[in-house]
Amino acid sequence: MKLFEQGERQATVAHSLRASRQSVSEWWLAWQAGDTKKLTGATEAGRKPRVQPQQLKLVEKELLRGALAHGYETDLWSLPRIAALIKKLTGVSYHPGHVWKILQRMGWSLQRPSLRARERDEQKVAQWKSQTWEEVKKKRKPGVHG
Q1: Model confidence pTM above 0.85
Q2: Do residues 29 and 64 share a domain?
Q3: How far is residue 39's CA from residue 17's CA, in Å, rounded to a whole number?
């Protein structure tokens, strides 16, 4: 209403409020008719979340305990594992693809494991490269390309 009272155009109001032009047109008509009831009842659009904020806090607490604490062989969380955890804790099923959106809303980000195993022994790798690999790799025949 304030924007309309300031003389702003409908297109400007739509852009400012990130609303559709159709919605702004309906609001303008309601404002012109003096029907402020239609203008005050707006809420967030979309479906209400199926998992409540206090349930998400519980999910986060369990995520922080690690995947090993939940019986997995590795301590890496994957989207299917997290979906299973959410189902176990809240009874709500989510597709693993949607779990990523939930994690983002919780402030979590994608973390990739390092490519090297913790058990990797650099000395043994260097030894294998210098000795065994030299024996294994094919030697080129003289005069043959490729």
Answers
A1: no
A2: no
A3: 13
Output 12 or 131, whichever has higher pLDDT. 12
Q: What pLDDT is recorded for position 118? A: 74
Helix (H), strand (E), coil (C) string for 24-50: HHHHHHHHHCCCCHHHHCCCCCCCCCC
> What range defines the domain where residue 88 resides?
53-105
Total structural domains within the chain = 2
Sign for the pseudo-dihedral over CA of 139, 144, 145, 146: negative
Distance (Å, whole) CA 133 – CA 123? 14
Looking at the domain assignment, is residue 141 inside a domain?
Answer: no
Looking at the structure, do residues 58 and 98 belong to the same domain, yes or no?
Answer: yes
Q: Cα separation of 27 and 25, whole Å?
A: 5
pLDDT of 66-112, one tens digit each?
999 999 998 889 999 999 999 999 999 999 989 998 999 888 888 87
Distance between CA atoms of residues 66 and 48, nearest Å: 29
